[in-house]
Amino acid sequence: MPDLKERSYKKELLDADGIPFEDIRENMRELNTVNRLLGGHKISLAGIHKLIEKRVPGMALSICEIGCGGGDNLQAINNWCRKNNIHASFTGIDIKKECIDFAQEQYPGLNATWICKDYAQVDLTAKKPDIIFSSLFCHHFTEQALVKMLHWMKANSSKGFFINDLQRHPLAYYSIKLLTRIFSKSYLVKNDAPLSVARGFKRKEWEVIFTSAGILQYSIVWKWAFRYLIVCKNGQ
Fold this sequence. Notes:
Blueprint: H1 21-37, H2 40-51, E1 60-66, H3 72-83, E2 87-94, H4 97-106, E3 112-116, E4 131-135, H5 143-156, E5 160-166, H6 170-183, H7 187-198, H8 203-213, E6 219-223, E7 227-233
Parallel strand pairs: 1-2, 1-4, 2-3, 4-5
Antiparallel strand pairs: 5-7, 6-7
């Protein structure tokens, strides 16, 4: 029984090296299902909406996701852009080659550049994407590492950045633990989904992280199911 009053720093299985590709593939498929059914993709789209000041048919938009995993977030955003006549280009960055390989395999038609690298070693300042975001990524890091991540996202985006991540909450923890026990076929998802919640942050913890980063202008909104959408516009 975890003590969710304090954040867990236990490593997730997915953070390890040497995981068989088929296991990564099953994990990515199920995470896509979770994002689709529990509103994760909608939250990312809400972040896009907040950072586009004026939506004009035919406009161009460049979007980068760090910790892109299997690419399902970028594909969901691409579908929305097509429906709204927005010419979108994407950059997906992930340190795991298996995730990048899966994304390329799943979405060959996506107008995307895939980068297999630690995001912190990537410099986009010469040609900044309009928007940088992360989804279910920040809880993998320490608070100190997140301060550096916020600086990087701000420095490398032109319009701004947003974060879509988990709230640490007992109901979220036990709900996802039960759901994955019943429905998941992936041992990675069964282990990591509830642990991700235990590694998540509460609102006040996010506020401390942003203060430590020296970023004072941002919005943080609670979203179903137990997530926070944090948006920072550049130039504010």
